[in-house]
Amino acid sequence: MLTEHLYQPFEAGYQELEEGVIAPHKHHFIEMVFVLTGTGVQCLNQHKLPYAPDKLFLLMPQDCHSFEIHSHTRLAFIRFNNIYLERLRPEWHQQMEYIFQHNNHLPGCVLKNVTDKPVVRALLEALIRELACSQRSEAVVEQLINTVLTLVARNIQAKMLLANNVVNGQETAVDILHYIHTHIYDPELLKAEQIARHCNISPNYLSEYFKRKHGDSLQQYIMGYKLKLVETRLQYSNMRIGEIAAELGFTDESHLNRAFKKYKGSSPSAFRKANVTI
After folding, report:
1. pLDDT by residue (tens digit) across 147-180?
2. Which fold would CATH assign to domain 2-163?
3. CATH fold group of domain 171-273
4. Which residues contact 270 (CB under 8 A, 6 or more apart)?
């Protein structure tokens, strides 16, 4: 199977495709594909769904995907690799981690908010124009890309809430998860007292309630989520293990090594060596 590579930090543009089949292939980079015009079928990891204008697909490294083109199709795309990710400011890097962590590698449009679709279209069209401009501004290009990433993260979050079926008393359970995900980089805000205050419940009831709803204790869930973010950083960045430990609130690199090995069965270094994808 063909595997495509990206030899620069990022690439953006558009493609025009005629009726036919784009054979299955994989990437060693991340790609967002937005349908400007045309219809057909997207196949991602052996799952098929029809595509149409204003659909946006998120393709992760090693996803197997192909297209069946039913009518003339124009696609806008953004591709980027770990070099681009390394240049991001911390808040944008965290935005990317959220996308990696919650994207479920299934086919279909990630834009669940209908009003975001024309916004993303306008941003991508502006990006393509800026890249073609002889006096293009790298700051403008970066801002356009990062705004698209922010919208994608927001829609993945909305999709996650929908998947949790927030009805009949489930709002508090989902609110706790959202609070944890939002403040995962701030250990002080992850204390039971702070979470309980945010949700307007007692700390003792919080622990009992969380265990009943999610099966894990609050601290087990927080540690598990942190370690998933560690996995993401190990796979998609060149950050040193000590830097990852500091950012996610571990006491030091040894603390992270012990926790990772306990929960994952291998050291962070061994995991990175076995799972690097970009």
Report:
1. 898 888 888 776 665 555 444 445 677 778 878 8
2. Jelly Rolls (2.60.120)
3. Arc Repressor Mutant, subunit A (1.10.10)
4. none
